[in-house]
Every structure is written in C-alpha cells, then in structure tokens.
Amino acid sequence: MPLDFSRIEALSGAFCEARALHAAVALDLFSAVAAGASAAQVATARGLNPRATELLLNALAGLELLNKADGVFTLPEGARRHLLPDGPESLCGMIRLEAAWWEPWGRLEEAVRTGLPMVEPGGWQRSPEETRRFILAMDSLVRARGDAEHVADTLDFSGVRRLLDVGAGPGTYPMAVCRAHPHVAATILDLPATLAVTTQVLRERGMAERVATVAGDFNTDPLPGGFDMVFLSNVIHGEDEAHCRALVRKCLGALNPGGRIVIKDHILSADRTRPVGGAVFSLHMLLLTRGRDYSLDEVSGWLAEAGFEPPTVTVLPAPFSSSLVVARRPG
Known about the structure:
The protein contains 16 helices and eleven strands. It has helices at about 5-10, 15-25, 30, 40-45, 50-60, 75-80, 90-100, 100-105, 110-115, 130-145, 145-155, 170-180, 190-205, 240-255, 275-290, 295-305; strands at about 65-70, 70-75, 160-165, 185-190, 210-215, 225-235, 255-265, 265-270, 295, 310-315, 325-330. A seven-stranded mixed beta sheet has the order 5-4-3-6-7-11-10, sandwiched between helices.
C-alpha cells in the first residue's frame, strides 16, 4: 500500500471512528435498534439528545455498523453477533475496555519521553470491579474471535493428560481444550483477585469440575509440577525480558520429561516491525506495562537457555493475530 495522502489522513483520523463505536457501546445503542428504531425512538429510550443521537446513528450506518432505510435503523448480521451485550460472541466487553485505554493513549508522547507506563502496572487488580472488567473483556475478545476453539482443534494434545494454563484469566482456553479433549485435566494458575472472576465463569459454564484453580503470582511463586503441557497465552508481552526468561525456566520445571510449552502471543519478525499489529501493540504495552511484543529469535533464545528443544512456530490464520511457539522438554 503506497504511503500517500489518503493513507496518512486515514491513520490520523482513525480515532474518530473508534470513539463513535466506543460511545455506541457505552450508550447501548445497538440493543436499542435490535428490533428496528428511528433516531427519535432511540433518543427517547436512552434519554439522549435527539439531534446528537441521529448524528451518531448516521455515522454508525456510514461505517456499516448499522443499516438505515426510510429513517429506521437496524442491525446487520455482524452487529447482531458481536455488538449486542449478552451474546456468546459479543465483543462489547473488549470494546468497553479499549474505551478505557483512551486516556493513557493520549499520553503516548510522555511515555516515549520517559519510558514509563502511563498507568500503574497491574492496575486492573486494584478493585474487584476493575479486575472483573478486564478479565471478562479478555473472555469477550477470545470468544468473539474464536481463538480458544481454534487452538483446541488444531494443537496436538496427544499424550497430554495434565495441562497448566499460566495466567489464564477467565479460563477460556482450558475450558475449550477440556470440551474438545475429554482426556485432558486442566489447572489454571492466576492471581487471587482474578480467580474470584474465573471461578464464577467456570461455574456458569459448567466447567468447575473439569478445570482446577491454583492461586499464585507466576513472577514470584513456584509453579506446580507434573504437567504434560504448559500454556502461556498473551502473557509474555506484559513482562520485561528478565521476567520472561525466568518464567520460561519455571515452565520447564513444571513439565514432565517430554512435556511441551506452548506460547501463544504476537511474535514479531527479527526487525520487530511485522506483523504491524504486533509492533503497534508494543506501544500499548509501553503505556500499560513493563513489557512489549517479542521476536521469534528472542523467544527461541529464552527456550534454549532454559533447556528446551528447538521450537516449532505456527502463524495462526486471520482473524487471529498470534502465533504458537511450541517447544519440548527433553526426556
């Protein structure tokens, strides 16, 4: 794609479209038009300014997030699947969380000057409400995109009886694995505040008997042992290089001989510019954590230092944005 006026201007103004979507989800406008409604009807139902409501609904229709015919707004199929708050593929939780990141992204210049996060690292653990919002947003994203089912269906689970998911959050991945592979018993290790949300999700989805939980901080506590597979999904990008190295060593110790570590994350090219989503996400990590996205060379180096065999890498197809790096403990 050539770097011309149109592309530069589209990048510069992309925040307008994002904020329109954020506002629509915050105001629950997609539910308001689920059965078809005019702008005046939506404004009345939600207690909004009629003129401003029509402007936003028109913009959403222009973005093809809504349909409009004869003054009536309706939902296209994609919006019905992903933009109603209570559906199994709803992305609303993730959209609300991304809206909350608006303020730290507005401080990107300060972060580049200082090299420091613009929020307290791990701030989503400060209150039960923040923890719940963050954890359910991760579940929202993975369920809407289908990552967990894809991993469960395509990753080789032969010989895996015990799976440890480190930093599993809502438990979306181990639940999908246990559904697809009845011989697998899964354990989640995560922080106590996170597990308060996780256990509720497991109960609601009928998986509390299949997935165990262990409270712990993977940076400071030992990992339990005796597992055939250790799974790290979107964990390493939140940590600096030293913590990633230490965590990979702990994972080796948690595995039985011949067991495998699976790292699912944005894996960058050697020059750390591709895929572009991963390079941009590193800025997000700059703002929120001490981490960034890492290259395959870096991850392979940690695995070799810990004592793993050389890894294999699978780039997941669109719409997934991650790769799977799999390495075996000798045995």
